[in-house]
Amino acid sequence: MTQKETKGKRQAPRDEAPAKVRYDVSRLTDQDVYLFNEGNHFRLYERLGAHTMAVDGVAGTYFAVWAPDAKQVFVMGAFNGWSKVSHPLRSRDLSGIWEGFVPGVGSGDVYKYHVVSRYHGYRVDKADPFAFWSEVPPGTASVVCDLEYAWGDQGWMQDRRRRNALDSAMAIYEVHLGSWMRAPEEGHRPLTYREMAPRLAEHVQKMGFTHVELLPVMEHPFYGSWGYQTLGYFAPTSRYGSPQDFMYFVDHLHQQGIGVILDWVPSHFPSDEHGLGYFDGTHLYEHADSRKGFHPDWGSFIFNYGRNEVRSFLISSALFWLDRYHVDGLRVDAVASMLYLDYSRREGEWIPNRYGGNENLEAISFLRRFNEEVYRHYPDVQTIAEESTAWPMVSRPTYVGGLGFGLKWDMGWMHDTLEYIAKEPVFRKYHHNQLTFRMVYAFYENFVLPLSHDEVVHGKGSLLGKMPGDDWQKFANLRLLLGYMYGQPGKKLLFMGAEFGQWREWAHDESLDWHLTQYERHAQIQGWLKDLNRLYQREASLQELDCDSGGFEWIDCSDADTSVLSFLRKGRSGDDIFLIVCNFTPVPRLSYRVGVPRGGRWVEVLNSDAGEYGGSGLGNMGGVEAEPIRHHGRPYSLDLTLPPLAVVFFKSGME
């Protein structure tokens, strides 16, 4: 069903209305109801919402919605001329669920629920919280949709445990689907899921990334929220196509050897009238007290994590994307806002927990259960926390007291590094600790090193635009930043546009500036990142112990005067060792001596100052022989040439 056909259904009701609702049909067993009300039903998308089926040879759709404080609930749509009273649903005992089977309603029909509350004469038209598809915004109706699809990614699914493992390379390309690439020949409209799939896969393969991470694709009413104001927790946005189109997108990337991670937002939801807020005339999904239920920064509602049915709803959403869409991971947005009751609130604007603290005990319990259920059913995926504080053990198992995530964004590294690299090199020696502080905590969690979308909007400038100096120095600094990130332990994440050095900051309603890739300096940035990704994927020393302190060793972290850092990366076998040396000034360092643990030849494998990347061409003639001169507490040392504003990778152990 195309978007145009769906709109046609919406605008042109059928000549003959379907038969009235039948109440002798249900997809809910008593056990389903019990588990839902208990907070332990995590496949609700199989039971609630709209499901096509045939009863006694008659095709139709079964509807079920949770609205415990409703006096009446009706289903309405183009099929009944949007009558608010002709098709009432029946209350299922004391479960709070309303259900019914409507003959003649099928896939592609649009619908809403008309909810009549017990209180204050409140009546409202609501979209289906469990809808699999929605009208194209600004339309707000839900769409009956089957999720049948013939998947072709069996090879990927069988191998993804290895590809998603903590000891494998993960180089993640962060993408906003609506602005990655547009169709200039058609008014610069966004590409559809099916149009984007082969283009994005080709680009990701060419650049050497292993995964893409999509800003939220779940349906959202306001495009400018980038998807972070989610309402359709079971529906990919219809802006780019149908659910099957999005399945094709994931399937195609998988068949090209690329993993797909989705941003998922259980932290808050918008207050649009057709959405989850005040659903049945009560604060059903959100806390009633605004000190717990309303987010002051985002103007959105906060889920009531202590309510059993809300936990079932959210965890069902998480498992839904892993189950029906084969996604390889969920990055959970704004975890810090969930963990702290006083997040972004002044004194007197929040309610302490039962022990008097600021920890949100219900949210902590929810996050732990979420991770337990994800890894119980899908042990070969990753959950990733965007958590911006020093909350302990975010990426440690729940059985030792952790939150249970697989990985955590290292926000501290991102902010410290970007603040440092934006400074004029002459001042960097006074801020050397911004580079070195990370290693104090680097292995307390399993970290992803992000250079994310949040850092290239709202006047912050693009990555290239943040760099100091003239144009040559800006490009050199960007190459240095990327090389430093790939040398550091941790998985890598880069937001789209940085891979070719976009000058403008990100604009969500415009395409990336792809025309820049025809210019040499931008193409050279691409070449540098390609080689970094290839090296990272090829070398066990740079990936196996990303999350283990045994894979990292400082050579010298204290040479602030010259703004030089040197460190080792090692794999489990210890056969191959990498030495990474970074010069954060535009001053070439000649005869710079660095201690190393072994003799023999150290091959210069990558040098960001090489001419092919747009550098000055200064280097070490392919490698250096270690001399038996003790330095930095090590038995051997190298006499190196350090190029300006550059990172150099040396490898020992090559045959």
How many domains? The number is 3
State the distance separating the first and last CA atoms: 58 Å
Q: What is the CATH C level class of the largest domain, in words?
A: Alpha Beta
Quickly give the structural class.
alpha/beta
The third-level CATH topology of the largest domain is TIM Barrel
Helix content, binned percent: 10-25%
Number of helices: 16
User: Which strand order does the major sheet show?
Assistant: 9-12-15-18-19-20-21-22
Shape: elongated
Number of strands: 30
Using only C-alpha atoms, the radius of gyration works out to: 27 Å
Which whole number gives the mean pLDDT?
Answer: 95
Instruction: Find the CATH superfamily of the largest domain.
Output: Glycosidases
Strand content: 15-25%
The poorly predicted ranges are 1-15
User: Sheet with the most strands?
Assistant: 8 strands, parallel, barrel
CATH architecture label of the largest domain = Alpha-Beta Barrel
Protein architecture, described:
It is built from 16 helices and 30 strands. It has 655 residues and is of the alpha/beta class. The chain has 3 domains: 141 residues, Immunoglobulin-like (Sandwich), CATH 2.60.40; 225 residues, Glycosidases (TIM Barrel, Alpha-Beta Barrel); 104 residues, Immunoglobulin-like. The strands form 8 sheets. Strands 9-12-15-18-19-20-21-22 form an 8-stranded parallel β-barrel, surrounded by 4 helices. The protein has a 6-stranded antiparallel sheet with strand order 23-24-25-30-27-28. A 4-stranded antiparallel sheet has the order 1-2-5-4, with no helix packed on it. Strand 6 and strand 7 form a beta hairpin. The longest helix has 19 residues. It is elongated and about 90 Å long.
